[in-house]
Amino acid sequence: MIRRVASQKRHLAVSQSSENFLLFSYGDYFEPGNVRWGGLRFFNDDLIHPACGFPLHFHDEIEVVSIVVAGEIRQRQGVQPLVRLRPGDVQVLSSGTGVRHVETNECPGQAHLYQVGIFPRESGLMPSHTEAAFGALPPPNELVAVASGQNKAGAILLNADATVFVGSLEPYQMIEYQMALDRCAFLYLTRGTLTVNGVDYEAGDQARIANEPEFMVGAIDHSDFVLVDVPTLGQTIRE
């Protein structure tokens, strides 16, 4: 089963500080039946205005993968040193027993990032965070694992049986992806036009994939996307 969710179905939360497309129930937005996709708890597409940010907030027992697309995010967590995240940088925040932090954009232009929340493999751990630079442009026509708990080479270690990939396809190129039947996948098209098993997707669209041993992703135009592979966690996923 592969379900296309059009970009218009995203929930847009607007404030003086930011514009946030919420793909799953998050914060003040709640939609029954759209709380998670297997082990994926949230996926937020965030645009933060200059000299603004997310005020002090709390995470616990969730793995938060942040992927910076444009601008610079500055993150403050208690007395710890300031963390700077630039385009192509990825952070894995293992929130564990709980962490409070502030994220701001102190640059003259807007900052753009994706934040992906995944249920952890093990609970009760001390909070930690790790950052790595993957480059502003992923290599063409391949999937790059940026965060993983599945022993993917080069990826930041994730406390979850999951992998977050970034992908970039040139026109008419294709990638085949295979997964076990006890797993599900989530694809978010960030730029361009592509197909998933022959169905067209435009920027902002999602593909929610389950019970598919393999699927094909093909580019119509130059296309960038994020792909998340997670366990179903016992969830019955059906059309």
Quote the distance from N terminus to C terminus: 7 Å
**How large is the count of helical segments?**
0
Rounded mean pLDDT score: 92
Number of strands: 22
- SSE topology string: EEEEEEEEEEEEEEEEEEEEEE
Low-confidence stretches: none
Radius of gyration: 17 Å
Description:
This protein is mainly β. 0% of the residues lie in helices and 54% in strands. The chain has no helices and 22 strands. The protein has strands at residues 2-5, 11-14, 18-22, 40-48, 52-59, 63-70, 73-76, 83-85, 89-94, 99-105, 111-118, 128-133, 142-148, 156-157, 163-169, 174-178, 183-191, 193-196, 199-202, 206-210, 214-219, 223-231. It has a 7-stranded mixed beta sheet with strand order 1-20-17-22-15-13-14, with no helix packed on it. It has a 7-stranded antiparallel beta sheet with strand order 2-3-4-11-6-9-12, with no helix packed on it. A hairpin with a 6-residue loop joins β7 and β8 (83-85). The protein is globular, with a radius of gyration of 17 Å. The mean pLDDT is 92.
Looking at this protein, list some descriptive labels.
7-stranded antiparallel β-sheet, 22 strands, mainly beta, 239 residues, 54% strand
Task: Indicate the topology.
Elements lengths: L1 E4 L5 E4 L3 E5 L17 E9 L3 E8 L3 E8 L2 E4 L6 E3 L3 E6 L4 E7 L5 E8 L9 E6 L8 E7 L7 E2 L5 E7 L4 E5 L4 E9 L1 E4 L2 E4 L3 E5 L3 E6 L3 E9 L8
Brief summary:
By secondary structure, the protein is an all-beta fold. It has no helices and 22 strands.
